[in-house]
Amino acid sequence: MRMATIEQRLAEYLELTKKMKSYEEALGVLYWDMRTGAPRKGLETRAEVIGVLSTELFKLSTSDRMGELLAALTEPAAFESLSRLHRRSVTESKKDYDRSKKIPPEMYQKYVVLASQAESVWEEAKPNNDFATFRPYLEQVVDYQKQFIELWGYGENKYDTLLDAYEPGMTVTKLDAVFGALRETLVPLVAAIAAKPALDTAFMNRKVPTEQQRAFSEFILKEIGYDFAAGRLDPTTHPFATGLNPGDVRVTTRYIEDDVKNSLFSTIHEGGHALYEQNVSPALIGTNLCTGTSMGIHESQSRLWENMIGRSRPFWERYYGDFQRIVPAFADVPMEDFYRAVNEVKPSLIRTEADELTYNLHIMIRYELEKRLMNDELQVADLPEAWNAMYKEYLGIEPPNDELGVLQDVHWSGGGFGYFPSYSLGNMYAAQMMDAMRAALPTFDADVAAGRFDPIKAWLTEKIYTHGKLLTPSEVIRNVAGAELDPTYLTTYLEAKYKEIYAL
Ligand code: ZN
After folding, report:
1. Ligand 1 center to residue 335 CA distance, Å?
2. Which of 93, 300, 449, 504 could make a disulfide contact with 426, Cβ separation 3.0–4.6 Å?
3. Which residues contact 169 (CB under 8 A, 6 or more apart)?
4. For residues 267 and 253, is the Cβ–Cβ distance under 8 A?
5. Where are the domains positioned within the chain?
6. Residue 219 and residue 4 in contact, taking contact as beta carbons nearer than 8 Å
7. Which residues have a Cβ under 8 Å from the Cβ of 4 and sit 6 or more positions away?
8. Catalytic positions, please?
9. Measured between alpha carbons, how far is 194 from 330 in angstroms, rounded to an integer?
């Protein structure tokens, strides 16, 4: 039998990748459906269907044939002959393949079952303020993570290998440096604001009917350039965006009658994620590169739109009139009061409710704890105490119980160690990108104040969105800013904004 040519192998590889992408898209629709109102009675069967499809997908991604194709295509001579797109696709697949293959299938199977049990136990333990029941599950999850680290291998720090899964190339050394710089600015800034008289924000709890919140959400998504012909907006409990392909990117939000801020900024946040996914180049459809390049870069887009544009004064100068028209309950609230209220800084216990400034401190606490856990410097049993001590140190407040403390996030129960830093990385990337965008678009503020988002979207598309996963995270930031990640852009931005708001 004659050996297959590189072209034939590439064609087979692309076909296999496309098949995997199809499974992923089908799973994406099923998850979306589950979280936007699928009938409760069908959920148990649905979970099984998802299990079956996920297993098939995992089998395809780790199949012997995939291994053979990747081995052949990554041989130097073959690799060099590939196009840039195919080289990058093969490199990504090889990385995923190697990582998956290092875990014995039986071990992975047991871990998946444990993680789903741990999540259910956590769901019960949280409202009951019951860390003791959750503890043995978390101990096992952490134990598995440590075993995975050994199997995957690691460089300088054990935690690096977990970071790399969400933010390729990120390390403890890099993060310690950027978080250290961020903390030095944020802790005194938050303390200075806490010493000032609190803002009057009581009007933010006025009742706003869901229908009005939905109308404004839809309006504002259209304004920022979200394409409803390639997406839709639905209510959910924990808002998310899901990119099935660039022609189908769905946004969800949450309507709380006496907290209009919630839907307002959830919508713009998820809208930012969606703008990224809707504008990935059609040339990447069907490949493993047809999505955002990393969690951190993705989060940079949600936060750039939510905070840096959506919570800016020029934005509300343009849209506050529309808001008052759609939401009459705010007819007598001056724009300036509203602007300050949506930018209120207040050290709080719950991460998801934190403001733009203190949010980063919530993340740094989790990062420090994860790092210690993975390096055997902290035991799960001592986690609640360590958590509370860090909140006192970083934010000056202490949780009265574990529900408002160590039990608040879902991430750890599902084994999502290494994920949290993405949120703050997103803020840092976003500030650096904003600086570059302002330099490239001198009329930026005037554009926002006039609701002209086309030049902004076009610039972001050219620099970031269109490339999908064709560029790595560090290539994206270099492509945008001509430099590596630098936290001083975020500290400069936050200092300027909040010193003005709080007259410091
Ligand atoms: Zn997000």
Report:
1. 27
2. 300
3. 472, 473, 474
4. yes
5. 6-153, 172-501
6. no
7. 12
8. 270
9. 27
Closest by CA position to 433, among listed 301, 344, 332: 301
Cα dihedral sign, 184-189-195-200: negative
Residue 227 to residue 401: CA distance in whole angstroms: 44
Long-range pairs of 399-406 with CB within 8 A, sequence gap ≥ 24: 399/349, 401/129, 402/129, 402/130, 402/131, 403/126, 403/127, 403/128, 403/129, 404/349, 404/350, 405/349, 406/131
Q: What is the pLDDT of residues 16-48, one digit of tens each?
A: 999 999 999 999 999 999 889 899 899 888 888
Strand pairing class (248-253; 233-235): parallel
- Tokens representing 402 are 């574990």
What proportion of the chain, given as a percentage, has pLDDT over 90? Answer: 91
3-state helix, strand, coil in the chain (%, to 5): 70, 5, 30
Give 421-449 pLDDT, tens digit per residue.
999 999 999 999 999 999 999 999 999 99
Instruction: Please give the biggest Cα pair distance in the chain.
Output: 82
- Ion ligand 1 residue ranges (Cβ < 5 Å): 302
The residues, any chain, with a CB within 8 Å of residue 365's CB and separated by 6 or more, are 387, 390, 391, 394
CB 425 within 8 A of CB 296: yes
Distance 17 CA to ligand 1 centre (A): 26
CA of 1 to the centre of ligand 1 (A): 51
Instruction: Identify the DSSP state of 48.
Output: H
Q: Which CATH number is associated with domain 172-501?
A: 1.10.1370.30
What pLDDT band is residue 341 in, cutting at 50, 70 and 90?
A: very high
